[in-house]
Design a protein that fits this description.
Length: 145
């Protein structure tokens, strides 16, 4: 067991593991690609994959400030990964979708994450990983009350 994690509570343990996995996946991607994509950018791409939500919807559904979300969307657009369009019959709102390149990259990144999950499964065992997934998917009774 990692001694640095030994005395952490559940919240901090989850946070530390999440941060570690995000750092690993970001590095795996950026080591293999000319176009570097941050975790925040991946998070936004996940919210729009196979959808065309409004920018306002994306801003509300990521844990990033509205201003930062707009900045990340501009950055993704400049990399050719997303396209921002006007919403039909609404001059005020804009919607966003992944470009073919964005879809391709998102799916390739999903494969990298699957490979990392296989590595974790090989280390921990299939039953343990399945059990962990079930626990994480369960209703913990602490939702937005």
């Amino acid at each position: 067991m990692n001694h640095e994690l030994e005395h952490l509570d559940l919240i901090d343990l989850l946070s530390e593991r999440h941060l570690l996995l995000r750092q690993i996946t970001e590095k795996l991607w950026n080591d293999r690609s000319d176009i570097h994509i941050s975790n925040s950018e991946w998070f936004i791409m996940a919210r729009i994959y196979k959808k065309q939500p409004t920018i306002a919807y994306v801003s509300k559904n990521v844990d990033i400030s509205r201003q930062a979300t707009h900045k990340f969307i501009k950055r993704l657009e400049s990399k050719g990964l997303v396209e921002v369009m006007n919403v039909e019959n609404n001059n005020k709102e804009k919607c966003i979708k992944l470009t073919p390149l964005g879809n391709d990259y998102f799916e390739k990144n999903a494969e990298l994450k699957k490979a990392l999950e296989r590595k974790i499964t090989n280390q921990m065992g299939e039953k343990q990983v399945a059990f962990l997934k079930d626990i994480l998917k369960a209703d913990w009774g602490v939702g937005n009350d």
